[in-house]
Structures are given as structure tokens and as C-alpha cells.
Amino acid sequence: MENMEDKKLLNDVKQYISVDFDDDDSLISDEIEIAQIYIDQCCGEEYKTNEKKVRLSSLLLKAIVKFMYENRSIVITQNIKSNNIVTTIMDVLANGN
Questions:
Q1: Burial class (CB in 10 A: 0-12, 13-18, 19+), 53
Q2: Which of 14-18, 50-54, 59-63 has the highest mean pLDDT?
Q3: 81: Cβ–Cβ under 8 A, 6 or more apart, which residues?
Q4: Are strands 81-82 and 75-76 parallel, antiparallel or unpaired?
């Protein structure tokens, strides 16, 4: 069972992405975890000691989850171009960071 902090974060993210049902909770929870890994890999974890940066990272996390939830793809179909988030993840993985 998830802890209260995880449940609060899930509810905050669901509110941000305008999801008011529980069917996708598992998917959204996975996307939250992936977004947090992405942020930590790109930015390091030192930001977690600065309250203002933690607040900014919370907004960034929600924005990343919203993108992943709404698009569920690595391609933006309107412009047929790669997503910068996916490109960055690929760079992090390729460099072993």
C-alpha cells in the first residue's frame, strides 16, 4: 500500500492533469516515478535542499506527467518532431548518468 505522501502527490498530480477517476492511478503513479527519476538524472538531487527549488521541481514533475499522460508517445504528431524530454532521457541513458 502506498504511503500518505505518495497518495497526496498522486491526488495533486491528478488534479493538475484534470483526472477525476481512479482507473488510471497505476499508470499515473508510474509516470510520477518516471518523472522524478528524469528530474533527478537531469538536475542531480542537490536541489532537494532548497525549498524554492523543490517547489519548482514539483511543478516540473506535474508538467512532465501531464505530457506523458496526454501524449503517450515520443512523437508530437502536429509537428512530427521528437520530444525534448525523450531526447534528454536517451542522452542520459546513453551517457550512463
A1: middle
A2: 14-18
A3: 75
A4: antiparallel
